[in-house]
Design a protein that fits this description.
Distance between the termini: 35 Å
CATH architecture: 3-Layer(aba) Sandwich
Shape: globular
CATH topology: Rossmann fold
Number of domains: 1
Strand content: 15-25%
Largest sheet: 5 strands, mixed
Number of strands: 18
Strand order of the largest sheet: 5-4-17-16-18
Radius of gyration: 20 Å
């Protein structure tokens, strides 16, 4: 049985197999990935508790499957296309080989700042490639990333930092969004003034170059943090059920709830769903217009596409800037042929 469903009949057969033998079905999907140690049990569940665990005993690192395993076969293929907010700025194209180097380099920078396996890292950034790099770098060293949508207020950000007990915050100077530059570093400063005592360091990516206030001993520029760091390094081995990330609900119906996703089950599901929902083929250019601050962005901008060896697109701006035809301009220029958006 292949990983990709190619017809309705194929779907019916696949669905029947998944219902008749769910553990065998998901074991087959999981076997297509690199595991440092194979699992001893596919699934353990108790819906009364509730308690569900996938691929017990297995060890891996999700970034080895997003990056390392692609280097030999598609190292020079574009992994991420970045379209900036300003249509006059030049887009960036980052190959799998380049992305591997950038992720390893920032992972080494995080380790130099004292981040280790199990530590929580809050990421409050605009939609630049560095946001994807930061999430993958955390995962590579076994740290738990908590991405917060860069439109949230200082109070909302502080609530999430305190709940996660984040050791490091990664942010940018400003968020270029439509005709405005929004001071996200200032929002971080205001959040940390609200009693986020767990935070030891703030790493700031220089996005627009506008002036920000730096706190000596706590704040460090991204470019200074990565200076001299190696663009290689072994991924930290984690258990399948170790935390990959915490993503908070919006809080629109009460206190935001931190939803935990783990390395093994999330990896298998996101790649499988990406490949089949979007019917991705070699050479396609795929664009999901969501923000990485939401689960759709985590799964279908970063992890799902990269696990599948796809070319995924990131867009910094808004659909109405400089005019309402921006999406279609981007689609045409980058030859996007799989387009995932909201009406």
């Amino acid at each position: 049985m292949t990983a990709k469903i190619n017809s309705f009949e194929d779907y019916q057969r696949t669905y029947a197999r998944s219902v008749a033998d769910p553990e065998g079905f998901w074991a087959e999907q999981a076997s297509r990935f690199q595991w440092q140690k194979p699992w001893r049990r596919v699934l353990k569940w108790n819906f009364r508790t509730p308690d569900v665990k996938w691929f017990l005993g297995g060890r891996l690192n999700i970034t080895e499957n997003c990056l390392d395993r692609h280097l030999e076969t598609r190292g020079n293929q574009v992994a991420i296309i970045w379209e900036p907010n300003d249509p006059g700025r030049r887009p960036r194209k980052i190959t799998y080989k380049q992305l591997y180097g950038l992720v390893c380099q920032f992972a080494n920078a995080l380790k130099a700042q004292g981040v280790k396996k199990g530590d929580r890292v809050c990421i409050y950034m605009p939609m630049t490639p560095e946001l994807a790099i930061a999430t993958l770098a955390c995962a590579r060293i076994g740290a738990v990333h908590s991405v917060v949508f860069a439109g949230f207020s200082a109070v909302s950000l502080a609530d999430r930092i305190k709940d996660a007990q984040a050791k490091v915050v990664i942010t940018s100077d400003y968020n270029a969004r439509g005709p405005k530059n929004i001071p996200v570093k200032k929002v971080v400063d205001e959040a940390l003034d609200l009693g986020c005592d767990s935070v030891e360091h703030v790493i700031i990516h220089q996005n627009t170059g506008d002036k920000v206030t730096m706190q000596p001993g706590r704040d460090i520029w991204w470019h200074d943090a990565v200076k001299g760091r190696r663009k290689s390094g072994k991924a930290t081995s984690v258990n399948s059920e170790d935390m990959l990330f915490i993503l908070y609900t919006s809080g629109s119906t009460g206190k935001p709830k931190g939803v935990v996703h783990t390395h093994g089950g999330y990896m298998v599901y996101t790649e499988y769903s990406f490949r089949n929902v979007f019917q991705y083929e070699e050479g396609d250019i795929y664009w999901c217009t969501a923000d990485i601050g939401w689960i759709t962005g985590h799964s279908y901008i970063v992890y799902g596409p990269l696990l599948a060896g796809a070319t995924t697109m990131m867009f910094e701006g808004v659909p109405t800037y400089p005019n309402a035809g921006r999406f279609w301009d981007v689609v045409q220029r980058h030859k996007v042929n799989i387009f995932y958006t909201a009406p």
